[in-house]
Amino acid sequence: MKNTQWKLRDAILLALIGIIFSVIYFLMDPMYQIISGALTTVGLQAFAGELTIGVWMMAGPLAAYVLKKPGTALLAEMIGAAGEMFLGGYWGVATLLAGLIQGAGSELGFTLTAYKNWKLGLWLSTLTGTVVTFGWQYLQSGFGNYHFGMLLLLFAVRYLSIFFFAGVLVNWIEKLLDRSKFLRTDND
Amino acid sequence: MTLKVSDVCFTYRKETLFSDFSIEMASGDFILLMGPSGCGKSTLLKTMAGLYPQYGGKITGQVTIDGQALTDIPANKRAGLVGLLFQNPREQFAMPTVEEEFIFTMENLQLAPDTMSNKIDRVLTKVGLTGFRKRLLSELSGGELQKVALAEVLLTGAKYLLLDEPFAAIDPQARVELQQLLKSLANEGYAIFVSDHDDHGYLDKMTAFYQYQKQHFTEVAQADWPKKVASQVVAVQKETLGRPIFQLKQLVLENDQRLLIEQAQLEMKSGECTLITGPNGSGKSSFLKALARLQKAEGQLTYLGQDFHRWKKKDYYRQVTLAFQSALDQFLDITVSEELQQVQKNTYQKNYWSTERIERSLHALGLAGLGNRSVYTLSGGQQKKLQLLLMLVMASPVLLLDEPFAGLDEQSVGVVLALLKEVRRDLDVTLVIVSHQIAPLAPIVNRHLALENAEFVDKEGVAV
Amino acid sequence: MMNASQRLFLALLLSLEIVLTNSLSFNVILLLFFNGLILYQGLPLKRYLYCWAVGFIPAIGSFWSFYLYAQGDLSHRLHVGLVMGSRVFLLIFLGAWLVNKTKEAVLLQSLQQNLHLSNTFIYGLIAALNFMPRFKQAFQNIQAASQMRGVSLHWYQPTLYFKALIQAIQWSESLAMAMTAHGFQEGAERSVYQTYPYKKVGFAWLALVLILTIGLLRLLPY
Ligand SMILES: Nc1ncnc2c1ncn2[C@@H]1O[C@H](COP(=O)(O)OP(=O)(O)OP(=O)(O)O)[C@@H](O)[C@H]1O
Ligand SMILES: Nc1ncnc2c1ncn2[C@@H]1O[C@H](COP(=O)(O)OP(=O)(O)OP(=O)(O)O)[C@@H](O)[C@H]1O
Ligand SMILES: [Mg+2]
Ligand SMILES: [Mg+2]
């Protein structure tokens, strides 16, 4: 747990990751719109969000995995959200709240390992991320109005999306990074 | 009042870069440091500025300023004592404009806010950049950026100035000016320590000379200093060459409404080796980027008789490739051998680039045995050499090179040049080279375009 | 009337209220208000129309989805659909109001000064933001570089993200070193050239809006 002090370099890297993803998030908005539009025609608009949510949750786990510090996932996700808002993302201020919830959800996974096992933390974070964001969506988008079967399906789709984007893809990127030996570690 | 380095030995990832380095810098000194790429010049300068071991590496020995160990001084005090100009001029500023960047520095040093404005004007005048106060740093040329960096260091009041290859991206005129400025600073009481690959212009100014030999930076006695060579003009060897490939008419190149190039007509023929020179910020890199379609340009621009925009990007980039100024941008894989395998698989000259030939070139460039190294851990010079080799192996019909020698030592320049020559002869590759280091290129170019007053002028000779 | 931090607080406060309540009339009143406000403040017409355009599909989609699949009778589903649809637009315009005329760096510096946030994070963010324009260039370069070597990179391949991350790490390292060399010390005192103090009247506005909106929500349950 000596790794809790924030150095300037880490803060910049955190910010850069957050901001890069804010651009990706922003670019995903029209993508979401298309998917959403397509699904709306068959009345399944609710699934658009569930399918794509994983993309919006990549910054947190990636930053946490790279920087290996408590609080990283939450911060990265919030920066990503704020950047998306400033770029003109159409969720407006709600993005900030979403970022907070999503970041907290991912962060929880790493917290559960007491910030000791980052790999396990990554996989846990996909699970906690799903649960927390689903809970929030339940409140915010009035999911309570849906039937139980529908809810279950929504949850499953959300988990798959988060598992792939915020889990598998993040892990993959991280593997490349490890191999490049580009990131200075403290034990050189 | 000295900056004293005693018996410093630097180890990075269990590899010792240099050892037993000692030096004393005092007011009035003007010291030059030379050494091949990757020997640790940048590392040494960063150590002397106190950035290492803060940012990694293991150091034995000590660096002290006026008797106080550098590692005991916090960064905001240290900056007022010793200033560093980084090798890459684009990566040393945190703020968007010159003014904001300077304010950031002065805030760090806790200077009084009401004195800041005057100070900014004063240092800008000193380096000859009056009127640059509100300029965006992202829109300055490499040479202008180095001057800004120098001005910023002058703001802090630091008396020990460390400069890491400050002239690598600077035109000869600006180089002379800046060297004179540095000398006058030394006379004013600053102590200057410069690393460079080129001793041009230092000989009558420097007070000490260090060179890298066998893992050590050692002082060279004045009797053994390099001799001054007289400059001369080498005539360009014109050849009758193939058909025109680039045909540019009414070319207009602008950067944020500032006109860079306005050219009624320009033709480039296949097989030519064109050298482009011009002052800093005149638009040479921009021109290459325009040819590589990475920057907007107006006019009637055709390649092989077909309009630029009619070419599909993918097909175009099989014809025309650009060796970027920053080598890292060129890499796609991770280790040196993966990179080489990738180009070997995709090269347009499969028969020519046999594994054997690649091995041989690798040896010549001093990159042998680095196969498993991640390209991201090579030194700047090693990366540059690898990058050039990769582009030569790709061997597209047209190869654009932006400052291919920046940061390379003399021997490496020689090897790269020999390779360029060989590939050009064997594969008939058309070369367009932007470079400030023209002397080594003089024997191989057969066209010299000088960018003067926003226009290319064909020159008969190359001054070396 | 308010400084940048206060505007952010107001936006956060309102969005919480909007998200946690289900009043269509409240949404509509606020929507009209913010539309008027940003037009009055001189938001370019193109940007204004863009806000409506981007909200269109998600708003309709949201409405439709709830209208069809929500629980309860028809009138209830209609109400939920309309609330959710108008919410999308409202949040967009609230965001547009906040972002219009507030530079990121100013917001960050004012937050730092007002809330005494860590300079390390704030300047890390500012430095990172200033590097963003170069990212576009870097991104173009990555794509061109790959095509020059006979391959194309696609968005679903990790290589692209990896290269971006490499770039980010490199910049963070060199930028941090440069800032340190220019005297930035984590946690140290700095002098301040430009200050962004809270405006007193800003807090009055915040309180007023809070009281007004709570009152409105009581009066307008539908
Ligand atoms: N991030 C890094 N990771 C691992 N090794 C590195 C890193 N940066 C530099 N090195 C190694 O340290 C050595 C010295 O690098 P340095 O940049 O100090 O050399 P240099 O003399 O300044 O070279 P150049 O003339 O090319 O700038 C190189 O051999 C390089 O392999
Ligand atoms: N990314 C950019 N955005 C806007 N303007 C730029 C950018 N890069 C460079 N410029 C401006 O365009 C002009 C030409 O820059 P360019 O890099 O082409 O010059 P150059 O001739 O290659 O100079 P140098 O010899 O210093 O490399 C410069 O004056 C610079 O101010
Ligand atoms: Mg160097
Ligand atoms: Mg250039």
UniProtKB/TrEMBL annotation, chain A:
The chain crosses the membrane at residues 12-28, 34-67, 79-101, 121-139, 151-173. Keywords: Membrane, Transmembrane, Transmembrane helix. InterPro entries: ABC_thiamin-permease_prd. This is Permease component (YkoE). It comes from Fructobacillus fructosus.
Automatic annotation (TrEMBL), chain B:
Keywords: ATP-binding, Cell membrane, Membrane, Nucleotide-binding, Translocase, Transport. InterPro entries: AAA+_ATPase, ABC_transporter-like_ATP-bd, ABC_transporter-like_CS, ABC_transpr_CbiO/EcfA_su, ECF_ABC_transporter_ATP-bd, P-loop_NTPase. SUPFAM superfamilies: P-loop containing nucleoside triphosphate hydrolases. It is a peripheral membrane protein. This is ATPase components of ABC transporters with duplicated ATPase domains (Uup). It is found in: Cell membrane. Signal peptide: none annotated. Its main location: membrane. Belongs to the ABC transporter superfamily. Residues 3-239, 246-464 form the ABC transporter domain.
UniProtKB/TrEMBL annotation, chain C:
Pfam families: CbiQ. The chain crosses the membrane at residues 49-70, 82-100, 120-139, 201-220. It comes from the Bacteria. Coiled coil: none annotated. It is found in: Membrane. The keyword Transmembrane helix applies. The keyword Iron does not apply. Keywords: Membrane, Transmembrane, Transmembrane helix. This is ECF-type transporter transmembrane protein EcfT (EcfT).
